[in-house]
Write a structure and sequence with these properties.
By secondary structure, the chain is an alpha+beta fold. The chain has helices at residues 13-30, 42-50, 52-63, 82-91, 107-110, 119-129, 135-153, 164-181, 188-193, 195-207, 210-213, 221-246, 253-259, 270-301, 303-317, 324-328, 333-345, 377-380, 400-403, 424-441, and strands spanning 36-37, 66-71, 74-79, 96-97, 161-163, 351-356, 360-362, 365-367, 372-376, 442-446, 454-455, 461-462, 467-472. The chain has a six-stranded mixed sheet. Strands 5-13-10 form a three-stranded antiparallel sheet. Strands 7-8 form a two-stranded antiparallel ribbon. Bound molecules: protoporphyrin IX containing FE.
Length: 476
């Protein structure tokens, strides 16, 4: 018996905009909005769009952990800080829906995957997907990661200049395609459709200016999204049909999804499978790409951290690559600290968009039902009253001696509770595998005059890429 799909939502941005306003009116009639900035302001909207971090931290300092800001047309409530994070992800998680919040904006590409569904449908599909992320499966994917990393490094040489962000993006998408779906990125199916490029085109929709996203018609960002989706769908549906026809299965998630059923015998339809595949490709490559780039950005700015990382790497591994147990079992503690601190400063999935399903009270502030409510790891990780000197890159914050003083809910780069990131270990493994392999032979200098600017849609990333100069460690 196929699993019943969740109710459809409109993908018309005008309709969604009108619905936002209608819901806001009825919510405000019941309960006043939390303190904050309620009027329409193009300047605030622009500032938030360019860099939301200072806007959110300032609002937290002025209004406390629960505040509202009108962004574009909509009144949005933000929950920031340890207590608020714990409430949204764990203790009060049932007050919120994901599908009705801004994750719903991703439905045109992702359909009804884990990020855009709730309740029973989500619980059942998560249970089906989870075994694919069990420890043994992830351990097995290290070989696939290595098989992609090696050739990607082949053209690196001393003095070469490259954009590390762009380099990692191609690599991470290839790893995701191969490790998660058993799709050969150079095979005829993926190559003919140029799946990697199509995926980038599709994601470009959310990176385009908000006002352009509203437009429909030829040559708009929407038209490019629809065309890219059509081509990607062809790849995924063809592969599902091929696997069903030939009975061919592998260690990948696609095989698992095709055969999966839950304890009541519910199976996934082709459409369900396509939506999960697209969601995992989306959630699984952009986040790791940005994390690799930010990690090397901070190593470039903090030479003493780079030195201790290299010393640890060389002492523990010499000129071999680490095993899965070494990467994930604490054999490289300095690397763990550097990754934790990178994800504190730049948690790629920086915002957790929801809609309140019922009213609640937090930190003495009442929040009505029916409005967009977001938590933000990025803002929460930069609060001066929680993290001393938040702009400083200090991996030792996470050392065994200091870790205990981090308040519950303060550090949430992978979310939390029953919907914590399913790909957490896969993502950590991938970042560490790429970083340790690069550092075996190379260090990376930031190109002179480079100054980091972030973009934040759909995840945080370096807006201008990460231009670096390669230094070959083997040349002495
Ligand atoms: C450094 C890498 C990653 C980071 C920082 C990250 C971060 C996050 C965060 C913060 C959430 C929760 C969002 C919220 O509460 O609103 C999340 C959810 C999710 N992530 Fe990740 N992620 C990473 C890698 C991955 C990978 C590699 C995959 C898949 C292969 C993945 C798949 C997902 C999925 C499917 C969800 C939704 C889970 C659910 O709702 O049941 N992520 N991720």
């Amino acid at each position: 018996m196929p699993l019943a799909a969740p109710p459809p939502v409109s993908t018309s941005s005008v309709r969604r905009l009108v619905m936002d306003l209608v819901r806001e009116r009825s919510a405000a009639a019941e309960t006043p909005m939390p303190p904050g900035e309620h009027g329409v302001s193009l300047a605030r909207t622009r500032r938030f769009h360019d860099n939301p971090l200072p806007v959110l931290v300032e609002a937290y300092q002025r209004y406390g952990p629960v505040f509202s800001l009108r962004i574009f047309h909509a009144q949005v409530v933000f929950l920031v800080g340890p207590e608020a994070n714990h409430f949204v992800t764990v203790s009060g998680a049932d007050h919120f829906t994901w599908r009705e919040g801004h994750f719903g904006d991703l439905i045109p590409l992702l359909g009804d995957g884990l990020l855009t569904t709730d309740g029973e449908y989500h619980r059942r599909t998560r249970r089906i997907v989870l075994p694919a992320f069990a420890k043994e499966r992830i351990a097995a994917s290290l070989d696939t990661m290595r098989a992609e990393i090696e050739p990607a490094l082949q053209r690196w040489h001393d003095g070469a200049t490259l954009d590390l962000y762009a380099w990692t993006r191609v690599l991470a998408l290839r790893i995701a395609m191969r490790a998660l779906f058993g799709l050969d990125p150079d095979g005829p199916l993926a190559r003919n459709a140029d799946a990697a490029t199509q995926f980038e085109h599709a994601l470009g929709f959310w990176a385009s200016d908000y006002f352009l996203q509203v437009l429909r018609g030829p040559r708009t960002p929407w038209a490019r999204l629809v065309e890219a989706r059509r081509r990607l769908d062809a790849v995924v549906y063809d592969e599902i049909a091929r696997r069903r026809r030939t009975g061919e299965r592998g260690e990948d998630i696609l095989s698992l999804l095709i055969d999966a059923s839950d304890e009541e015998g519910h199976r996934l339809t082709d459409r369900n499978i396509r939506d999960q595949v697209m969601t995992l490709l989306f959630a699984g490559h952009d986040t790791t790409t940005s994390t690799v780039a930010f990690l090397f950005h901070e190593l470039g700015r903090n030479p003493h951290e780079l030195r201790s990382l290299l010393a640890e790497r060389d002492a523990v591994l010499g000129d071999r690559d680490p095993t899965f147990a070494e990467l994930m079992g604490g054999a490289l503690p300095r690397l763990d600290l550097v990754l934790d601190e990178t994800l504190r400063m730049y948690p790629a999935a920086w915002i957790g968009p929801r809609r309140s399903a019922k009213p609640f009270e937090l930190a003495g502030v009442r929040v009505p039902a029916g409005i967009p409510v977001n938590y933000s790891s990025w803002a929460s990780h930069h609060l001066p009253d929680v993290w001393g000197d938040p702009e400083a890159f200090r991996p030792d914050r996470f050392s065994p001696e200091q870790r205990g003083s981090i308040p519950k809910g303060a550090y949430i780069p992978f979310g939390g509770g029953s919907r914590i990131c399913v790909g957490m270990r896969f993502g950590q493994l991938e970042v560490k595998a790429i970083a340790t392999r690069i550092l075996r032979d190379f260090t990376l200098d930031l190109q002179g005059g480079f100054s980091l600017r972030t973009r934040q849609m759909p995840t945080i990333g370096p807006r201008d890429g990460l231009p670096v100069i390669v230094r070959d460690r083997r040349r002495g």
